[in-house]
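name: query_chain
kind: protein
chains: 1
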Amino acid sequence: MMGMNATPTGERTHIGFFGRRNAGKSSLVNAVTGQEMAVVSPVKGTTTDPVRKAMELLPLGPVLIIDTPGIDDEGELGQLRVRRARQVLNQSDVAVLVVDAAVGKTQADEELILLFREKDIRFVVAYNKCDLLTTIPPVGENEIYVSAEQGTRISALKEKIASLAVKEEIKLRLVGDLIHPSDFVVLVVPIDQAAPKGRLILPQQQTIRDILEADAAAIVVKEFELKETLENLGRRPSLVITDSQVFAKASADTPPDIPLTSFSILMARYKGVLDTAVRGVKALETLEDGDPVLISEGCTHHRQCDDIGTVKLPRWIRQYTGKKPEFLFTSGAEFPEDLSPYRWIVHCGACMLGEREMKYRQACALDQQTPMTNYGILIAYMQGILKRSLSVFPHILAELEG
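structure:
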């Protein structure tokens, strides 16, 4: 249980349940999960906001189940709910379209199927309430008749979901492909008031795990211990990875012949957005007074008095540029569909977001021609060490220099 509960949200398979009001989405979610995860009522529109549940779903493993409001909700508030339901599409690895078997697919359902295909989301159509039918019609490959109330074909539906959710065997490593067995990797981890009590933050945990899986050794130090550790190690480490907030000190204390990068830069590559983030950092040079800058974090957490996103980055940007941009902030699942009001986007490392969600945000920025970068890349750029921090990625470095 500990391993399942510890699986980060961004590493779980995201399964979204969609459909019209009263199609039985929440009932089917409860039947699939075997839990009373969602409130069930005959009243239309009982689910008013996406409901998320991290759990173990056999035979698939760690998943995030998302129950969404009805896509046919009405009124001004209803349209807001519909918009939130559609935003879940950007996070979903697999979609389950729940259709009332007695009614059949409607135009709203067909429009959703088109969206699934446009966004390249694998999906299954689950015709719920089949217990109300006298005969079961023939179905296509990605369709199934089920009954949440009777428990009919729920296991078969779970098998279909699992088969659709199988990921490619070749997956980009966080750092394991950059090192070799028996290598030493030094991790610089500040312990200050912003650090979580009694634990390391997620990118640090994941990096250590990936180093161990590569049969290499991880040496974890605080920023003021780095120089002495390197001098006394007796062996040159293959890589130093630092928290972005102490990038300058880590660079000064690490000899030039030892590669140096940051957790945030590694995470950007892992999420597939490093190229865009490197290109987007140059927008810093053209900022003017009053330019709206969106600083977006993928998680929600208690803000400290010297918070990196809301305090430190705005201060450093003002100091570097000599300008006074207008800073706006989002966190968690919140991310604007319309990015046209923003001159620039600075995003966190996205350790709590799935690859699909992060690539969606990247695509939104590219489509709307809004430059977007990453915390670690921006900090390295402002401190004059971005080229050094990208030396482990020669093709990215060549693009930056070009």
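note: Residues 337 and 364 are 7 Å apart (CA to CA).
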